[in-house]
Amino acid sequence: MTEITYILLLSLLAGAAMPTGALLARLDLVHPYFLGASWRHFIIAFGGGALISAVALVLVPEGASKLSPLLAALCFAAGGVCFYLLDAFLSRLNSSVGQLVAMLSDFVPEAIALGAAFAAGGSAGLLLALLMVLQNLPEGFNAFEELSSNSQLSPNKIVLAFSGLALVGPASAATGYYLLSQYDELMGALMLFASAGILYLVFQDIAPESKLVHQSMPAVGAVTGFLLGLVGNMMIAGG
């Protein structure tokens, strides 16, 4: 198997976690007692923990290593501002696709970074693929719930659309591998820009949605999501 084939398969696997999460949410919609409130919020918070682990273990360290402190800070700040403006725009539109946009907003730059990381060598690409799988499953779950409750789309159409969106992963990874891997500063800027956006989305959308009164499961979910990212990082680095 060639390296690019391996990269495309990894990015497709990461993207396939989105419709898998949607299918889990659809099952929960049909059988609401299948998961219950505690486990449903655990899944939401798990995605937040996995997203933060991607930021802390891969995107920020890799991105910051390619830029000066001032430029790194500017790129990170720009990401936060842009995601704030995007969120405000969607709120004014009263759109039901906020969680879907959030899912793609981190999936696309991470898939690009995945391809570039493999082109540059090292273990960051494999770790990033693992973290993308961990975060895309609960994000697919969240996005399905939002779309199914606030739009006219049927559940089957939503799952089908998510399956099509999974193909964005290989296309983005190939772009990073062939076109952007030679531009270290551009890749660093993209990683930091995406990092700020991910942090904004975690605290704006995921953390509030995961909260349950007098329940600790959401907090346990967030810790578990980050823990799996940390273990994956240590195993890959050790190998």
Structural class computed from helices and strand pairing: mainly alpha
Cα-based radius of gyration, to the nearest Å: 17 Å
H-E order: HHHHHHHHH
Number of helices: 9
N-to-C CA distance:
20 Å
Average of pLDDT: 82
Count of DSSP E strands?
A: 0
Percent of residues in helices comes to over 70%
Question: How does the major sheet shape up?
Answer: none
Q: Give the low-confidence spans.
A: none
Rough shape?
A: globular
Amount of beta strand: under 5%
Give a structural overview.
The chain is mostly helical and 239 residues long. Helices cover 86% and strands 0% of the residues. It is built from 9 helices and no strands. It has helices at residues 3-30, 36-64, 69-93, 98-120, 124-150, 155-165, 168-180, 184-210, 217-238. Helix 3 (69-93) crosses helix 8. The radius of gyration is 17 Å and the shape is globular. It starts with a helix and ends with a helix. The mean pLDDT is 82. The chain crosses the membrane at residues 40-60, 67-91, 111-137, 158-180, 186-203, 215-236. It comes from Vreelandella alkaliphila. Keywords: Membrane, Transmembrane, Transmembrane helix. This is Divalent cation transporter.
Brief account:
By secondary structure, the protein is mainly α. The protein has helices at 3-30, 36-64, 69-93, 98-120, 124-150, 155-165, 168-180, 184-210, 217-238.
Observed structural traits:
single chain, 239 residues, mainly alpha, 9 helices, 86% helix, transmembrane
Topology (elements, then pairings):
Elements: H1 3-30, H2 36-64, H3 69-93, H4 98-120, H5 124-150, H6 155-165, H7 168-180, H8 184-210, H9 217-238
